[in-house]
Amino acid sequence: MRTLIKNGTIVTADSQFVGDILIDGEKIKAIGVNAEPDVDKVFDATGKYVLPGGIDQHVHFSFVYKGSKVRGFETSNAAALGGTTTVIEFVNQVKDKGLVESLEDYKKSDAEGISMVDYGFHVVMTDPRPEVIDEIPKLAEAGYPTMKLFMAYKGQFFHADDDAILSAMLKGKEAGVTIMVHAENADMIDVLTKKLIAEGKVGPYYHAVSRPPVVEAEATRRAIYLAELADAPLYVVHVTCKEALQEIKDAYAKGQRIFGETCTHYLTLDESDLAKPGYEGAKYVCSPALRTQEHRDALWEAVDRKWLNAVSSDHCGFDYAEQKHMGYGEGKSFADIPNGAPSLQHRLTVLWTYGVETGKISPSRLVDLYATMPAKTNGLTSKGQLAPGFDADIVIYDPEYRGVISAETSAEGVDYSAFEGFEQKGRPETVFLRGEVIVDNAEYVGHKGQGKFIAGEPFGAAYKPED
């Protein structure tokens, strides 16, 4: 099957120009002007942008809170509708199982034959026994070149202390496994949470009070020091505040290989959302907490100037009516509210509407943030770029569309949207997954199980300078 996309404004991480893209089977064969006409199908993209399919390196399809699970890969068509063609899911190591075994079991039970976009995995080490640390190089061999550790959540089975983080960094660098951290000081949070609850301050707003910027900044600095001691790279997920950002900038200026991402909700929402009337603020409980406008401004500058190199969704599909209400009622508090918000479907449109359309970032910078650098960081060598030989994961984006984001029109499978009522400028009109149309006229036309596992290569972008 040979397909031609013609006359679109092709956007890469480096440039944009009007041209054609020739797809042959699952791959991009050629890019240029007046590409060869011998094709089976033609898509006229005149007046539209042609982007690489997005890589969302931070999604949660398996998170369980007090026995209640988020929506899983059965809702991954939401990614496709949002122009994301590859997702990378966090999978917890299972008690008494190894790292690779935990990933392989999850892949077979929860993703294979279900996912509607391509996928990869980060493992979350929960049991840092010496034999588990020694297994880290096997992750790279199996196509899992990233591992995440939680500095937050004191008392939870997935909390990692400095010993575990440093040991993982030392072992990971041998095989090119990038260590990621959720950087929040667990002890600070624990003390503040207990104090607030004792004072009767239990509503959703106090989630942010229990996790002020210093909590994130301290943990970020500590992780950077651990990486310096190990002489290893570090990736800090969901950076939210200017203080943590400054720690990353300072380390990078000293020559350390320190990278970070932020997320769409930290760029567009703030702590006032947690104070909405009634219990509405529970919808916005996520960790780290939402910040104020000054932090949002700093984050926009950071993604524009490459101090942060990705914008992910941190999608976490808990319902509001039941699951988010686990923190409501007598004896309950903000500490009982499941963390996270649904945001998978609207990452690209939020970035376009509130980044590109407002002049905060260019279309090329958007491409780098939502596709190209996430692919490089995670070793996805066939993804994230519009170039011959790469997978034909392509988005035709209509910039003239006008709409409003709503849970009613979302495929995320939950009863609210973190961006409810937000203006939307533009939308993914047509989306290709490895050369096959999975979204047509902004409607999902793919099928369950169409996505496949994409193995990552070790020694990703955190180990070497950008190309």
**Mean pLDDT level:** 96
Q: How many H/I helices?
A: 13
Low-confidence stretches: none
Measured between the Cα atoms of the first and last residue, the distance is 32 Å
What is the correct CATH architecture of the largest domain?
Alpha-Beta Barrel
Main sheet: strands, sense, barrel = 9 strands, mixed
CATH class of the largest domain: Alpha Beta
What's the domain count?
A: 2
Percentage of residues in strands: 15-25%
Rounded to an integer in angstroms, the radius of gyration calculated over CA atoms is: 21 Å
By DSSP, the count of extended strands is 20
* Portion in helices: 25-40%
Task: Using the coordinates shown, work out and report the CATH topology of the largest domain.
Answer: TIM Barrel
Structural class: alpha/beta
CATH superfamily of the largest domain: Metal-dependent hydrolases
Indicate the overall shape. Answer: globular
Verbal overview:
With 467 residues, this protein is an alpha/beta fold. The protein folds into two domains: 2-51 and 386-399 and 422-444, Urease, subunit C, domain 1 (Roll), CATH 2.30.40.10; 53-382, Metal-dependent hydrolases (TIM Barrel). Helices cover 28% and strands 24% of the residues. The protein has helices at 77-81, 99-111, 130-133, 136-141, 162-175, 186-198, 206-209, 213-230, 242-253, 264-268, 293-304, 347-356, 363-377; strands at residues 2-11, 16-24, 27-32, 41-44, 49-52, 54-60, 64-65, 68-69, 84-92, 118-124, 146-150, 178-182, 234-236, 258-263, 310-312, 315-316, 394-404, 423-433, 436-440, 443-444. The chain is globular, with a radius of gyration of 21 Å.
